[in-house]
Amino acid sequence: MRVAGAAKLVVAVAVFLLTFYVISQVFEIKMDASLGNLFARSALDAVVRSTKPPRYKCGISKACPEKHFAFKMASGAANVVGPKICLEDNVLMSGVKNNVGRGINIALVNDVAPFIEFLKAIQDGTIVLMGTYDDGATKLNDEARRLIAELGSTSITHLGFRDNWVFCGGKGIKTKSPFEQHIKNNKDTNKYEGWPEVVEMEGCIPQKQD
């Protein structure tokens, strides 16, 4: 009887030890897997953070060189969303700021006469950013178009009813500005009923050198 009892005890102890060993091995494997996943996620998060694209002024796609102004602008969308003009990370005009209106947005002008006086008063070396909203051409006369052309615009001479147009030029510029986008109002290609799609533009403006 004692021998049988001792044998049962040995078997019980062996089963216990075997069970404990198996559980410990499984637990160790799970711990290794959990730690491995944790480290993998941490490494992935670090990679994602390091590869997140930087934000440049006005949200443009690349940084401007030294001694350049960053700008981004968009024309209005139909007669619903106003244009937006940003310079050096400062939003100068937008529908949110409630300082845009129908026509060409440099300033809120409802008649061509003060608009012409405004253009004439611009001093040499001044950067000028313009964007249309709804219709920027109907009230323009030949003198207004000429004055805008002198700022470096090439499209102003044929800007038509409800065309979308954005432009960045300067008073005293000696050449035509490279910063200009123009989409004609065309019923066959318009994105909106009666208006073309929004036109956007961004870039870097060289600062005036003394």
From TrEMBL:
Organism superkingdom: Eukaryota
Signal peptide feature range: none
Keyword Secreted applies: yes
InterPro entries reported for this sequence: FAM3 (IPR039220), ILEI/PANDER_dom (IPR039477), ILEI_FAM3C (IPR039475)
Domain named ILEI/PANDER: residues: 110-172
Keywords assigned: Disulfide bond, Lectin, Secreted, Signal
Protein name as annotated: FAM3 metabolism regulating signaling molecule C
